[in-house]
Every structure is written in structure tokens, then in C-alpha cells.
Amino acid sequence: MGDRTHAHTGAAGRAPTAGRPASLRNVVLVGHSGSGKTTLVEALALTAGALNRAGRVEDGATVSDYDEIEQRRRRSVQLSLVPVEWGGHKINLLDTPGYADFVGELRAGLRAADAALFVVSAAQEADAVAGTTRAVWEECAAVGMPRAIVVTHLDTARTSFEEMTRVCGRIFGNDDPDAVLPLYLPVQGPEGPDGHAPLTGLTGLLTQRIFDYSSGERQENPPAGEQRGPLQDARNRLIEGIIAESEDETLMDRYLGGGEIDVATLMGDLERAVARGSFHPVLTAAPAAEGAAQGIGTVELLDLITKGFPSPVERALPAVSTPDGTPRPAPACDPGAPLVAEVVKTASDPYVGRVSLVRVFSGTLRPDETVHVCGHGLTEPGGATRPFHEADVRVGALTAPFGKQQRPLDQCVAGDLACVSKLGGAETGDTLSGTGEPLLMEPWSMPDPLLPLAVRAHGKADEDRLSQGLARLVAEDPTMRLEQNQDTHQVVLWCMGEAHTDVALERLRSRYGVQVDAEPHRVPLRETFASRTVGRGRHVKQSGGHGQYAICEIEVEPLPPGTGIEFVDKVVGGSVPRQFVASVEKGVRAQAARGVAAGHPLVDVRVTLLDGKSHSVDSSDAAFQTAGALALREAAADTRIQLLEPVAEVAVLVPDDFVGAVMSDLAGRRGRVVGTEQTAGERTLVRAEVPEIEIGRYTVDLRSLTHGTGRFDRAYARHEPMPPQLADRLRESQENTAKVS
């Protein structure tokens, strides 16, 4: 978010403002990658007068996709905010990435919004719509977030609005056919030889008017005679659905009694039904033609947002507590109330440094005032702990982002969004409150990153910058996790998928100037003894002066999994002086940590010191440490060393249609299915134990196997013996790698 103005923005330098929460609308756009969200935002901004001309995703010229990575890739990879004004309201349009790897940006948009527009493409298969958006729809339903549906790409050959509406009703209707109904019907021109039928206008079912865009301008006309019959049937069903879902019994009695109901009354019931999260109108939209001042359906969509979507005042706010966990009353969405705000996104700007996108839930945020920043102490995937933190911080400048442009604000009232630069060490999810009564908002969930990316600095000059660049990436993106693996000595960045890893590497190189190399991720293996054996360590050196003399004899035997290393002293007669028994143990444990065969830590054995010899002058602590290590290595040379691999407990949630394929795939990964559970929504939870070496890329493979509908969690269970043939192949591979390097 820099200070350079976008080339085709209108009203330069002036940010839309809202003096009261009731005039605000916060809307997040959700949908599959390629469904047209960014193009729709561009069209809405053009219609609202925020742009002089609309940019194209193909040209990398849209106001939402201003990041250089987005412009190169021609797709969104981060949340962007585009505020516009319409009908006396400020609308904050939150454009989210459609690709599953960037779900963290999507979750941030959901947290900041009060309603959601689900954008679906008529050119996409029904499976794609279900697979990529159903989980988000259910998340919104769980918290009662209002939702509407926008169908795009109707001008593509062989597409049908009616069919797409049926698909949406089946996927999103929750077995209620009257919960998902069209608010407008498309008017399309004659179909060409390629099956292409251009969208020329809309028919308003409530207003019973035709909105014709064929001339380049929006014209309102009455329906023709042949249109009245189908129009009336669709209108009746819509009115019945609105009244039923709004639970307005008085209006239902009037309707059933044949009374005429005016449009304003129906719009009031529509707003109640949508606000309750029980009715979901379906609309269609298309970008503006060349030279046109507005896109088709954009006026109707902006009207729905301002008249049918709730303001922040109507939404239930997240629960709050004091930093010590004492619950506090829910904050009021009132500019005059005490301040409660939250950092929903953190980004780095090459000009001003760290920038925090803040949603104000209560009170008013002003520049140059001191606020209390408080962050949760959370346990992250892998067991790492994000420490609890709090501090008083002075707020810097407030700005309203519009693409890469930042427009100054003198305040941000309850319900609104603003960017704050240099907000101390504030992180995504932190709460901003008054210094007199610090508060903490309940945390919002983020998925676990499950795809490992092992990286190393390309050269000496990059080593210092690498740790700093990785730390910044993780601070900005809560769906990334950084691991310094002490067993494999690898730096591992855990991500959501391949596209996520590609963007992370590109940002390290372009934004932070760090050249990095990716390397194969190694799982932390262990070694253990397969049978009982003995070993003798002899360390005797005499080269003039003080010498070194230590001899010890040990017995090594395997123990049950998870036992670790046990050391037992059975020396009789003082052959190893008492002060050197601990030295032998230290040497044994140091060698066990280094490994005795393939360089992996040795575990689950009992080492018993049986006998030894010492010298009154030449014996020392260092000598007996060396002898203990030599004895363990000799013992390992006389028996088979078994490799142990980590095994994960995996829980895979998939639609019932994919259960067989998933179980077969897990079996091919040496997995053991331990049970299945039927869950809501015709889905099954498959529980299995799978070697971690087999599921390094499972997040990518599962997405492909289930068409994006499956997800899984994993947790370390234990280490188990690796099959001998696999262990032999792994040793050969490691030996060959060592020879090459």
C-alpha cells in the first residue's frame, strides 16, 4: 500500500467518509478463483463514480490487484479494500483471493465485513462452485452473516442463469428451495452461432420493470406483454420466499388474502430476511462495455447493498474480555462509546513500513491518540506459542486505502475500516482499546498451514536477511508458520499450498531482497537398536606429557517406544571411579544425539555401564566421555540399527462421494484407517494413522483428489519402525546425496 495514485481513479485525494455507523456497509466478496470478483469490484467502483474508467484483470490494471505479484500472476493473492459512495452510504468493498491457498486473506475479509457477496461464474462446473465456496458459506451461516449471490459470465456460450440458480439453491439452500431465489432476471440478446448470447439488461421482479443497458445507458421500461406471465410467476415465488423467511405473518396474511403490497414494504421485509441470514437473493452482473459509464446490474447490486444489507449497528459484535480473561459486556457500535478495534490484516509497505488494516467495532479511532494494543497468547500448530503481549502505542496517520493509493482520514468511526501506519508491533488479531480499560476481543480461527517449504540462504550475504524476511512474512500472514527444526537443522516455512509457497518465495526475493533456495523437506527420523548387544570403548593416548586413558564396557538393549535413553551404572569394585561414571553417561548421550548409523538421534535404549579401566594420572572427564561415545558406536556396529519414522494422526473431512477414493489413497501411503464418522452436510470424517514421510504434500494431493472439497488436520502421534526395504532405500539415497555434495 504505497503513496502512488492509481492511474484511473476518480475523486483523487478524497476518501469516502461516514459520520455514523448506520450509513456504512461492509461487504466481502467471496468466490472461486476466476469467478469475477475483482472485475465486479471494478465495475461497482466505476458505477459509483470512484473510477473514471475500469481496468482489466488481464492487463494487471485493476484497482484491487495493485501488488506487483498480483499484476504478474493476473490473480488476487491478498485482501484489498475499495471504499465507494452510493445513495448517501459508504460501502467498503472487500475483495478476497479466490484461490484456496490464500484463505487467511479471506478470513480477514470475513472478520471485517457484515455481509458477504458470493460470486459464482455461470461458466464453471457445479462441482467447482460446491468445492471451493461451500465451506465458506457454512462458516458464514454458523455466525448468521447475511449473504447474497451474484452470477457472472452469463455472456459465455452455453450458460444458463436458471440452471445456475438451481445449482446455488441446491448447494446453498440448506434443503430450503425458497431461501435462494432471484431478485432480478437477466435479459439476453439473440444467441450467435458460437452460442454466445450477450447480456443486455435485467428484469426487476419486485418493481416489475425492465432495466435496459443495450444503448450503453440504463433505461427503465415496462415489460412487454409476452413477458408478463413468466415474470408474474417468478415474482410470486420471490414474494412468498421473502415473506416466509422474514417471518412477517401480518404481511403473509395480506398477501394470501390478495391484497396489493407496495415495493417499499417488500424491500423492508427483504432487508429483514437477508439480515437474519435466512434469505439469499440471486442477482447477475457484467462489466461495462467499452465507453459505458456503468456495468450491467451494478446499479441494482449497489441498491441491494445499501437497502437490503445490514449496517454495522445491526450486527452482533465479537465477545470481549479483560486481558486476564474476565468477560466484559459486548461493545456497542457507537462512535461515542469506548474504543474497541481490531487489526484484521498486516502488510509491509516499501514507503511507510508496516501498515495495519483496522476494523473499529466501537468508539472512534483518531490520529495521534494513545491506544492500548493487546494480543492473545495462542498455541500455534506444531506446539509453538505466540506470546501474549500488550503495550500502549501512539496511533500514527489514519488513511483509507483505494488500491495502492492512501487517502488521509481525520477519524474512523465505529463500523468503519482504516489503515494505520507504524502501530508499534501490532499483529493481525490484536485488539486496540482505550488505555483506561484495556480489552481483548475473542480470537478468530485460522486454518493450520500443512505444506512444508524448507529454505536456505543462497549465499553468505543472504543469511542475515533471511531470518528477518521470514519473520516479517509470518507477522503479516497468520496462515504461515516458521519452524527451526532442531533435528533436521532445516528452516521450514509451513504454508497453505503450492501457490502460497510460490508467493512467499517471490516476496522474499522482491520485497526483502533475500535470495533463497528451496530444498527437499526432511522429516525427523530416529534410530534405535534392534537387539541387545555390547560395546567396548577404549581411548588410550600417550604422546608425551599428560596422556589420556579411559576404557569402558557397556551393554545396550532396546526399550519400548517413547522411553528415551536410560543409563544404568552396574560397575563393581571401582574399576571406573565414581567421578567418571557421569562422564561416560555424558559421552553416551552426546553420541546418541548425533546418531550411530545414519545421523539421526538414537532413542528408546538402555545403556548399562558394566566395567572399565582407569589410570591414576591420565584418566579424565574428557577421556571417559570419548570412551563412552566409542563404546556406543562399537555396539551399534555389531547389531542392526532400526530407523524410526514419525507417524501422524490424520483426520480427513470429505463429502461422502469421495470416502472410497480417500481411504484407498491413504492405504497407498501406508496409512491405517482407524475409524470413520458421519457428519452434517453428507460428509464423512476419516481418521487414520499415516507416516509423516508419506503426507508431505497431502494438502495439495487431497485438494486434487476431492476437487477442492476435502480438508484435513494432522497431529504427531509417535515414532514407529520404518519397513526395512524403505529404510535401506533411504540410506542409499542419503549416501548418494552426500557423495554428490
Write up what this structure looks like.
Helix content is 28%, strand content 30%. It contains 16 helices and 39 strands. Strands 20-17-25-14-15-24-21-22 form an 8-stranded antiparallel beta sheet. The chain has a 7-stranded mixed beta sheet with strand order 2-3-1-4-5-11-6, with helices on both faces. Strands 31, 36, 37, 38 and 39 form a 5-stranded antiparallel beta sheet that branches. The longest helix is centred in the first third of the chain and has 22 residues, at 225-246. The chain is elongated, with a radius of gyration of 32 Å. The two termini are 43 Å apart.
Task: Please describe the structure with a list of short key phrases separated by commas or semicolons.
16 helices, 741 residues, disordered N terminus, alpha+beta
Ranges with pLDDT <50 over ≥5 residues?
1-13, 379-385
Overall geometry: elongated
Mean pLDDT: 87
The biggest sheet, with number of strands, parallel, antiparallel or mixed sense and barrel status, is:
8 strands, antiparallel
Computed over alpha carbons, the radius of gyration is 32 Å
Count the beta strands: 39
Terminal Cα span: 43 Å
Backbone structural class:
alpha+beta
Strand percent estimate: 25-35%
Helix content: 25-40%
Q: What oligomeric state is this? A: single chain
Number of H/I helices: 16
Spatial order of the strands in the main sheet?
Answer: 20-17-25-14-15-24-21-22
